[in-house]
Amino acid sequence: MHAGLLIALTRAVPPSIVDCELTHLARMPIDVAVARAQHDHYERTLRALGCRVERVLETPDLPDSVFIEDTAVVFDEVAIITRPGAISRRAETTAVAEALSRYRPLRYIEPPATIDGGDVLVIDKRVFVGLSTRTNHEGLRQFRAALTGYGYTVTGVPVDGCLHLKSAVTAVSDDVLILDSRSVDPRQFGGLLWIEPADEERHAANVLRIGATIVCPDDAPITRRRLEDAGLSVTTTTAAASELRKAEGALTCCSLIFSVL
Ligand code: CIR
Question: What is the pTM of this model?
Answer without folding.
Answer: 0.96
